[in-house]
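Q: Second attempt. The first request was missing the SMILES, so the protein and flavin-adenine dinucleotide are both included now.
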Amino acid sequence: MRFLQPTTWAEALEARATHPDAVAIAGGTDVMVGINFGRLRPPLLLDLTRVGELQEWSVDGGDVRLGAGVPYARVITELGDRLPGLAMASRTIGSPQIRNRGTVGGNLATASPAGDAHPALLAADAEVEVASVRGTRRIPVTDFYTGVKRSALAPDELIAAVRIRPPAGPQQYSKIGTRNAMVIAVAAFGLALHPDRGVVGTGIGSAAPTPRRATAAEEFAAEELSGLWESRGELPAATAVRFGELVATAAAPIDDVRGTAAYRVHALSVMARRALTWAWAEYRTAKES
Amino acid sequence: MSAPARTPAGAPGSLTGPGSGGVGDDAARPDGTLKVRGEFAYGSDLWMEDMLWGVTLRSPHPYARIRSIDVGPALAVPGVKAVLTSDDVPGEKVYGLELADQPVLAVDVVRYQGEPVALVAADHPETARAAAARIVVDYEVWEPVTDAITALGHPHWNQVHDGTARVTELSRESAHLHPEGNLVRHLKVRTGDPAPTADVVVVNTYEVGMQDQAFLGPESGLAVPAEDGGVELYVATQWLHVDQRQICSALSLPPEQVRLTLAGVGGAFGGREDLSMHVHACLLALRTGKPVKMSYNREESFFGHVHRHPATMRYEHGATRDGDLVYVKAEIYFDGGAYASSTPAVVGNGGTMGIGPYVVPNVHVDCYGAYTNNPPCGAMRGFGSVQTAFAYESQMDALAAELGMDPVELRCRNAMEQGSKAITGQVIDSPAPVVELLRRLEAMPLPGAAPDDLRHMPGGVSNTTHGEGVRRGIGYAVSYKNVAFSEGFDDYSTARVRLEVVGGEPTVTVHTAAAEVGQGLVTVEQQIARTELGVDRVVVAPKDTQVGSAGSTSASRQTYVTGGAVKAACEAVRGRVLERAAATTGRPVGELRLFDGAVVADGLELPLAELLGDDAVEETLEWRHRPTEAIDPETGQGFAHVQYAFSAHRAVVDVDTELGLVKVVEMACTQDVGKAINPQAVVGQIQGGTAQGLGLAVMEEILIKDGRVQNPSFTDYLIPTILDMPPMRIEILEYADPHAPYGLRGVGEAPNISSGPAVLAAIRQATGLPLTRVPVRPEHLTGT
Ligand SMILES: Cc1cc2nc3c(=O)[nH]c(=O)nc-3n(C[C@H](O)[C@H](O)[C@H](O)COP(=O)(O)OP(=O)(O)OC[C@H]3O[C@@H](n4cnc5c(N)ncnc54)[C@H](O)[C@@H]3O)c2cc1C
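A: Got both inputs this time. The predicted holo structure:
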């Protein structure tokens, strides 16, 4: 197995273009598992950890531009205020070792329905910035996931960054696992209030072939809350319940060793109801900005 | 015996360690520093320059006939040195701990998914794996038998109660897994009135899923061919001599030519009692003339060792209105999987201990172990008792509810005490402080409300509740477990103890074959030698077959039995040293003692260095606990067990009742250990055993579908993390057992038995649900 180690973004894109059979590796927490199990035997590894540009985040045109190679541990410690939903999701991922290595870029490229970054990115309306020697493009995260472990990333492209608008309102992330840490999601839910737009963003994980939004629930919430953003009035309990039910209807889960489809649907409705309740309570008490 | 020509890297050395400390002290482990620094060599660290790597081809089917095996394509792979099948096994083709029924390599039929079919040795593990994948095996796939009750042709309980009980014949020719049928053992206990009646009766059916030992160091070893035509095997295992016996039989070699040394063991819990790669590596080494290493990865490990027997149990408890137990009827089915392994002993424990530490005048127990095409099940910490404790303790709670009585009160009312009769008719002839264990638990303060911190909530930092839906529950459970081998087994250990002066310092060397698997026996061996011989410097020699058998590191027995042997050998050495001192000094032996490296008496201090000079005093002897006896096959009566260990737990849990997620808030444990030889190690055993029991209650299960394992990895076979295992309150009682060395009791298993049922009881209290199956899943708690 050969190993390429570009040190600049341009070199990395060049290498990606010239070696279509290479497998990119960032934290390696998915790639090395694949190699260990013999599922993945690439002739060439393209190591991205020396590409400085990928390891940085910045504020760019009002967005946070999070380099694809920034590990979860840094998202938690450095971006807890700017990207609260993603930071909460990051906190649920693996163990300290995995959070030190694993990256949002890797999570996106793997595009597992159970990836924990996805629901948070969906709820926050993130964009994925991808690039190749042909140029750079931005893909709304909603369009990024195309199938089970498949994404809109072209074979010659690499993920440069994700772009996320800093929150105008509270965000929440909840994940079910059958133990209290270090567990793959049985079901997950991300929520972001966008009071500036009068919108509630959602993302569900591990409950459909791809991460997806709960569109009907979003529309319902936008409508129900339209009169409340201004007044910061109380959230009717029935609204939260109905919101939960609608989130659950967006799921298309399966029975597997981690849980039954029925449980996943049930859990989503509870998580969504609670998340909206918490987020709204926080919104009501937050100072007007 | 010829010494190995070369010693591999990673072979064990002698342990001396930093320590001091005798019996009753918190002596430090001699291997502790090495382990903490990552310098301790485990079986997977074994290495020799010119070694080959062995891999195993396993059956993908739970049940199939092998029509043919073509090894040609594998042999053609460059780098491959040997490919072996059952035709290449020179001796007995089957082995087993209690019954020899398991093929070294499949002969004609495979009976479980993962059964070894062929072996490959190559110069690189990748090459060996690639070659194994090229072996062509033509299988005629059969329908597997996957349920113990069905395998025995017994009617299921719903049939029993819906209609006339009728034993049905198995319909398919292939349904008999073994020539003698699918019954491994049926144990009966019959006491008192065969048709008892009672004021209050509770009947329930319980199920326990298949737990894995989940030791962290997968199976590993290195076989080195020797010049005498024999083989040296370095292997992580639990009982070197029982391995040796089975390897000799498969290789057709005498014991002198099959020499075993214990490699570093990363946990065992029963999973290393059966052979794994032992014979395979030896076969490959003898065939190729090269050292051969075999090391399983985690996935293979799930197929490479036996698991805890799943159990289905129907219990009927009858009591008076006042809460006195009148009778217990129990039908217990253990699914032994494809081969017998320890199933007979599991049935023995399950049957004779299966109603718990209670006095019951009328008992009717039928306990069965069956063959199926599920993975073979065998030894795991607390076997037989772990499963039944879920049933009998759940029954005690159900009965208490029915009687409107406090569950602890009901237990105390019916608890055994010294002098009580067990259901085998055996009189409990040492302390049995069941009531005190429970009362002490009750008296411990309860934890307060969970702090406002996600890490203390069900779901942890996954942020699923901020208190919504959370209800607290408290549960109690008590257990007892037979210590050491039972039912007439000749259970002994051998110790060689040598006292000499090395570099001016008196030094004791303790040599036993007792496997150190992490539990701290090496520390105990040092402590006993220090106490008995008054010498601080104690070297623990590598564990190997150059000394006689120590018996198994299982059944909570090594501190008792090997500890007893080391003590006896030390006493013999001391006797000789004191006689010699008596001869030199003219003082009577009775006045002399060994203390701090010298023979001392009133006005006398004779340093050992002076007394012994260049002489060594060495004694080797076998030591046995008092004999037990076989039980009556029709009534289950007899002096079956040498000793009992007692423990009790109180669990406090918070359950998110809406999401079905559980946070165990606190575990409290009381245990009578007779004498804590090393109190710190005792606490470690209680904490570890508690965690393993908690795991079975709420998450640990190998899921099997149609005989196939669904989750052979730590991704989906979940074991508790530090956020799942709460802080503990532990109280240790020390009521000496007059029959045991120092009055000690085996410690390792009891806390593993009472922990899970206490957690289950607490979840039941929090949710109000009956919960008759473990592990409890969120689906059970949410009705999804
Ligand atoms: C023990 C353990 C626990 C885990 N727990 C969780 C969990 O709780 N939640 C969760 O979501 N995941 C979990 N994972 C999975 C994994 O950690 C995450 O998916 C992580 O985000 C992967 O990031 P990485 O940098 O390690 O990716 P890598 O393994 O380096 O790469 C993953 C994939 O992304 C591609 N890739 C990486 N960077 C780029 C890039 N810049 N452009 C294009 N392609 C790229 C690689 O080619 C590969 O296909 C766990 C993994 C392990 C081993």
